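Exam revision sheet. Question 4 asks you to relate a sequence to its structure. Input first:
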Amino acid sequence: MTDQSKRILLGVLLVLAGGVFLLQQLLDIPIGGLFIALLFVLAGCVFLFFLLKDRQKWWLVIPGFTLIGIGAIIAMDKLFPRIAGRFGGAIFLAAVALSFLVIYILKPSQWWPIIPSGILLILALVAGLNLNGMASGGLLFLGIGATFTVLGLMPIGKTEKWPWIPAGICLLLGLILFASSGALMGSAAGWVLALVLIAAGGYFVIRSLIKKE
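Answer key, C-alpha coordinates:
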Protein backbone atom coordinates (compact mmCIF):
# COMPACT_ATOMS: atom_id res chain seq x y z
CA MET A 1 0.00 0.00 0.00
CA THR A 2 1.47 3.34 -1.12
CA ASP A 3 1.67 6.45 1.07
CA GLN A 4 -1.02 8.09 -1.03
CA SER A 5 -3.37 5.12 -0.53
CA LYS A 6 -2.73 5.21 3.20
CA ARG A 7 -3.59 8.91 3.37
CA ILE A 8 -6.76 8.37 1.35
CA LEU A 9 -7.81 5.49 3.61
CA LEU A 10 -7.13 7.55 6.73
CA GLY A 11 -9.11 10.47 5.30
CA VAL A 12 -12.09 8.27 4.42
CA LEU A 13 -12.11 6.76 7.91
CA LEU A 14 -11.99 10.19 9.53
CA VAL A 15 -14.86 11.45 7.36
CA LEU A 16 -16.92 8.36 8.21
CA ALA A 17 -16.19 8.79 11.90
CA GLY A 18 -17.14 12.46 11.81
CA GLY A 19 -20.32 11.72 9.87
CA VAL A 20 -21.36 8.99 12.29
CA PHE A 21 -20.83 11.13 15.36
CA LEU A 22 -22.61 14.07 13.67
CA LEU A 23 -25.64 11.87 13.03
CA GLN A 24 -25.47 10.74 16.65
CA GLN A 25 -25.66 14.37 17.78
CA LEU A 26 -28.45 15.30 15.36
CA LEU A 27 -30.64 12.23 15.83
CA ASP A 28 -29.72 11.43 19.44
CA ILE A 29 -29.04 7.81 18.47
CA PRO A 30 -26.12 6.02 20.20
CA ILE A 31 -24.52 4.70 17.02
CA GLY A 32 -20.96 5.53 18.02
CA GLY A 33 -20.50 2.03 19.43
CA LEU A 34 -21.58 0.49 16.12
CA PHE A 35 -18.97 2.57 14.33
CA ILE A 36 -16.30 1.31 16.73
CA ALA A 37 -17.53 -2.23 16.03
CA LEU A 38 -17.25 -1.56 12.31
CA LEU A 39 -13.68 -0.35 12.74
CA PHE A 40 -12.74 -3.58 14.52
CA VAL A 41 -14.36 -5.65 11.78
CA LEU A 42 -12.64 -3.63 9.05
CA ALA A 43 -9.29 -3.99 10.82
CA GLY A 44 -9.79 -7.75 10.97
CA CYS A 45 -10.69 -7.81 7.27
CA VAL A 46 -7.47 -5.94 6.46
CA PHE A 47 -5.43 -8.73 8.08
CA LEU A 48 -7.41 -11.34 6.13
CA PHE A 49 -6.93 -9.36 2.91
CA PHE A 50 -3.15 -9.45 3.28
CA LEU A 51 -3.42 -13.15 4.11
CA LEU A 52 -5.21 -13.78 0.81
CA LYS A 53 -2.40 -11.97 -0.99
CA ASP A 54 0.27 -14.10 0.70
CA ARG A 55 -0.96 -17.35 2.25
CA GLN A 56 2.47 -18.05 3.67
CA LYS A 57 1.72 -15.41 6.30
CA TRP A 58 -0.76 -17.74 8.01
CA TRP A 59 -0.36 -15.97 11.36
CA LEU A 60 -2.40 -13.03 10.00
CA VAL A 61 -5.57 -15.08 10.43
CA ILE A 62 -5.30 -14.93 14.24
CA PRO A 63 -5.53 -11.12 14.64
CA GLY A 64 -7.97 -11.08 11.72
CA PHE A 65 -10.62 -13.30 13.27
CA THR A 66 -9.92 -11.98 16.77
CA LEU A 67 -10.64 -8.39 15.73
CA ILE A 68 -13.75 -9.47 13.83
CA GLY A 69 -14.95 -11.33 16.92
CA ILE A 70 -14.41 -8.25 19.11
CA GLY A 71 -16.31 -6.11 16.59
CA ALA A 72 -19.19 -8.59 16.54
CA ILE A 73 -19.44 -8.51 20.35
CA ILE A 74 -19.43 -4.70 20.45
CA ALA A 75 -22.16 -4.56 17.80
CA MET A 76 -24.24 -7.18 19.61
CA ASP A 77 -23.86 -5.28 22.87
CA LYS A 78 -25.43 -2.23 21.21
CA LEU A 79 -28.13 -4.05 19.25
CA PHE A 80 -28.89 -7.11 21.38
CA PRO A 81 -27.42 -6.49 24.87
CA ARG A 82 -29.06 -9.53 26.47
CA ILE A 83 -27.69 -11.90 23.86
CA ALA A 84 -24.27 -10.26 24.08
CA GLY A 85 -24.24 -10.61 27.85
CA ARG A 86 -25.20 -14.28 27.59
CA PHE A 87 -23.13 -15.43 24.61
CA GLY A 88 -20.50 -12.70 24.11
CA GLY A 89 -17.67 -14.72 25.62
CA ALA A 90 -18.64 -17.82 23.64
CA ILE A 91 -18.68 -15.86 20.37
CA PHE A 92 -15.24 -14.39 21.01
CA LEU A 93 -13.72 -17.78 21.88
CA ALA A 94 -15.33 -19.35 18.81
CA ALA A 95 -13.87 -16.62 16.59
CA VAL A 96 -10.35 -17.25 17.91
CA ALA A 97 -10.88 -21.02 17.58
CA LEU A 98 -11.92 -20.50 13.96
CA SER A 99 -8.62 -18.76 13.26
CA PHE A 100 -6.64 -21.83 14.32
CA LEU A 101 -8.94 -24.06 12.27
CA VAL A 102 -8.26 -21.90 9.20
CA ILE A 103 -4.51 -22.20 9.88
CA TYR A 104 -4.86 -25.99 9.72
CA ILE A 105 -6.86 -25.71 6.48
CA LEU A 106 -4.15 -23.50 4.97
CA LYS A 107 -1.33 -25.73 6.21
CA PRO A 108 -2.71 -29.27 6.63
CA SER A 109 0.80 -30.60 7.21
CA GLN A 110 0.81 -28.78 10.56
CA TRP A 111 -1.23 -30.65 13.17
CA TRP A 112 -0.70 -28.34 16.16
CA PRO A 113 -3.56 -25.86 15.32
CA ILE A 114 -6.04 -28.67 16.04
CA ILE A 115 -5.25 -28.50 19.77
CA PRO A 116 -5.94 -24.78 20.42
CA SER A 117 -8.86 -24.87 17.99
CA GLY A 118 -10.55 -27.78 19.77
CA ILE A 119 -9.87 -26.45 23.27
CA LEU A 120 -11.15 -22.96 22.41
CA LEU A 121 -14.26 -24.41 20.77
CA ILE A 122 -15.11 -26.46 23.84
CA LEU A 123 -14.46 -23.41 26.04
CA ALA A 124 -16.89 -21.48 23.83
CA LEU A 125 -19.46 -24.24 24.28
CA VAL A 126 -18.97 -24.29 28.06
CA ALA A 127 -19.28 -20.50 28.19
CA GLY A 128 -22.49 -20.59 26.17
CA LEU A 129 -24.22 -23.35 28.15
CA ASN A 130 -25.79 -22.79 31.53
CA LEU A 131 -24.40 -25.80 33.38
CA ASN A 132 -23.33 -26.25 36.98
CA GLY A 133 -19.66 -26.22 37.89
CA MET A 134 -19.06 -29.97 37.84
CA ALA A 135 -20.98 -30.43 34.59
CA SER A 136 -18.98 -27.62 32.99
CA GLY A 137 -15.75 -29.25 34.13
CA GLY A 138 -16.89 -32.59 32.79
CA LEU A 139 -17.81 -31.07 29.43
CA LEU A 140 -14.45 -29.32 29.29
CA PHE A 141 -12.54 -32.55 29.86
CA LEU A 142 -14.73 -34.36 27.32
CA GLY A 143 -13.98 -31.69 24.76
CA ILE A 144 -10.24 -31.82 25.40
CA GLY A 145 -10.37 -35.61 25.17
CA ALA A 146 -12.28 -35.39 21.89
CA THR A 147 -9.68 -32.95 20.55
CA PHE A 148 -6.82 -35.36 21.24
CA THR A 149 -8.92 -38.22 19.85
CA VAL A 150 -9.23 -36.32 16.57
CA LEU A 151 -5.47 -35.79 16.68
CA GLY A 152 -4.95 -39.51 17.20
CA LEU A 153 -7.11 -40.30 14.17
CA MET A 154 -5.04 -37.98 11.99
CA PRO A 155 -1.84 -39.09 10.19
CA ILE A 156 0.25 -38.15 13.23
CA GLY A 157 -1.66 -40.77 15.22
CA LYS A 158 -0.35 -43.45 12.90
CA THR A 159 3.26 -42.65 13.70
CA GLU A 160 2.95 -41.41 17.29
CA LYS A 161 0.61 -42.83 19.90
CA TRP A 162 0.97 -40.09 22.54
CA PRO A 163 -2.30 -38.27 21.61
CA TRP A 164 -4.28 -41.27 22.88
CA ILE A 165 -2.87 -40.87 26.41
CA PRO A 166 -4.36 -37.40 27.13
CA ALA A 167 -7.42 -38.42 25.10
CA GLY A 168 -8.16 -41.42 27.30
CA ILE A 169 -7.42 -39.60 30.58
CA CYS A 170 -9.52 -36.55 29.71
CA LEU A 171 -12.44 -38.58 28.35
CA LEU A 172 -12.50 -40.73 31.49
CA LEU A 173 -12.34 -37.71 33.81
CA GLY A 174 -14.97 -35.93 31.75
CA LEU A 175 -17.36 -38.86 31.89
CA ILE A 176 -16.92 -39.24 35.65
CA LEU A 177 -17.40 -35.52 36.34
CA PHE A 178 -20.35 -35.20 33.99
CA ALA A 179 -22.03 -38.29 35.41
CA SER A 180 -21.43 -37.08 38.98
CA SER A 181 -22.79 -33.59 38.28
CA GLY A 182 -26.41 -34.73 38.14
CA ALA A 183 -26.96 -32.82 34.89
CA LEU A 184 -28.32 -35.96 33.23
CA MET A 185 -30.29 -37.17 36.25
CA GLY A 186 -33.58 -38.77 35.22
CA SER A 187 -32.87 -38.42 31.49
CA ALA A 188 -32.45 -41.11 28.85
CA ALA A 189 -28.91 -39.87 28.20
CA GLY A 190 -28.10 -40.45 31.88
CA TRP A 191 -29.22 -44.09 31.64
CA VAL A 192 -27.21 -44.59 28.45
CA LEU A 193 -24.09 -43.03 29.98
CA ALA A 194 -24.34 -45.19 33.09
CA LEU A 195 -24.73 -48.38 31.04
CA VAL A 196 -21.86 -47.41 28.73
CA LEU A 197 -19.54 -46.80 31.69
CA ILE A 198 -20.49 -50.13 33.28
CA ALA A 199 -20.05 -51.99 30.00
CA ALA A 200 -16.68 -50.34 29.28
CA GLY A 201 -15.40 -51.00 32.79
CA GLY A 202 -16.58 -54.60 32.70
CA TYR A 203 -14.93 -55.12 29.32
CA PHE A 204 -11.52 -53.98 30.56
CA VAL A 205 -11.79 -56.05 33.75
CA ILE A 206 -12.82 -59.23 31.91
CA ARG A 207 -10.22 -58.71 29.21
CA SER A 208 -7.47 -58.28 31.83
CA LEU A 209 -8.53 -61.45 33.67
CA ILE A 210 -8.65 -63.48 30.47
CA LYS A 211 -5.16 -62.30 29.49
CA LYS A 212 -3.75 -63.32 32.90
CA GLU A 213 -5.21 -66.81 32.51
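Marking note for examiners. Residues 136-213 form one domain.
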